[in-house]
Design goal:
The protein is an alpha/beta fold. It has helices at residues 23-36, 53-56, 102-114, 134-142, 156-170, 205-212, 225-232, 243-259; strands at residues 8-15, 41-45, 66-69, 72-75, 78-80, 83-87, 121-127, 147-152, 178-189, 217-224. It has 8 helices and 10 strands. The chain binds adenosine-5'-diphosphate and magnesium ion.
């Protein structure tokens, strides 16, 4: 079988051991940053059980337009902030998501991946489901050319989850390179005192995981008070009044391109 998505130069799987660590926030904002840096970028929401990319980019309620090509139904991704976005949320009503189970979920994911008109892309960023469930395994099998980023939070208890996610990629039957670790909510920066840093959730988790897997710590993204509100109202970190988080994403985009020898 020929390789899937031959017109996509780099596929980046954004993964985490558990939900709530900021995987969607990192995936969406990374995609937007790469696009602002001049790369043709797509974003696939593969978190079928909690597709939250539409909300985070202000695309809730949008529907992808379908058409027929070679006897199959294909979908146009929805463009936002210069990126091509696809999510199960664009194909179905929110309430229906609960019916997806095992093989059905894998089928749905295959369709999103294969029947979307991505066109030529420098980067496809994929917001993975949390943990090491079936969908994650399906994705790594379908896209063996991918590279992964592991998102964790700094506290020691988060390490075990991060380790599980990282171990999935490095297991001999999957063997997907890890580009590095992103530590999210590394420190708190108050809006009125952007020069101050508070380590709310302890420290060192991201660096420790990076050391264990001999990969770089790509970014330490601060907890910034307006990010939650921005995400809920479909705005990116570029609308934040706190430029520290913008810089963190710009650094991350730069590091990914440095680490990424594939990009020509
Ligand atoms: N760096 C950050 N600063 C402030 N809030 C954040 C940050 N990262 C994520 N959040 C918020 O935390 C919540 C969980 O983030 P989300 O990206 O949805 O996590 P996941 O996809 O891992 O479940 C969201 O409300 C999001 O806006
Ligand atoms: Mg999410």
């Amino acid at each position: 079988m020929s390789r899937l998505l031959p017109n996509v130069k780099n596929i980046i799987l954004v993964a985490s051991g558990k939900g709530g660590v900021g995987k969607t926030t990192v995936a969406s904002n990374l995609a937007v940053t790469l696009s602002r840096d001049g790369y043709k970028t797509g974003l696939l929401d593969a978190d079928l059980y909690g597709p939250s990319v539409p909300l985070s980019l202000g695309l809730e309620g949008q529907r992808a337009i379908a058409s027929h090509e070679d006897n199959k139904e294909v979908f146009n991704p929805i463009e936002r902030f210069g990126i091509k976005v696809m999510s199960l949320g664009f194909l179905m009503k929110k309430e229906d998501a609960v019916i997806w189970r095992g093989p059905m979920a894998s089928n749905a994911l295959s369709q999103l991946l294969e029947n979307t008109r991505w066109g030529e892309l420098d980067f496809l960023v994929i917001d993975m489901p949390p943990g090491t469930a079936d969908i994650s395994i399906t994705l790594t099998q379908k896209l063996p050319q991918s590279k992964a980023i592991i998102v964790i939070t700094p506290q020691q208890v988060a390490l075990a989850d991060g380790r599980k996610a990282a171990s999935m990629f490095t297991s001999t039957n999957i063997n997907i390179p890890i580009l590095g670790v992103v530590e999210n909510m590394s420190y708190f920066v108050p809006e009125n005192h952007p020069e101050e840093k508070y380590l709310l959730f302890g420290k060192g988790g991201g660096q420790q995981l990076a050391n264990e897997f001999k990969v770089p710590l790509l970014a330490q993204i601060p907890l910034v008070s307006d990010v939650c509100e921005l995400g809920d109202s479909g705005k990116t970190v570029f609308a934040s009044s706190n430029k520290i988080i913008v810089n963190a994403f710009q650094d991350l985009s730069g590091k990914i391109n440095q680490e990424n020898t594939v990009l020509t």
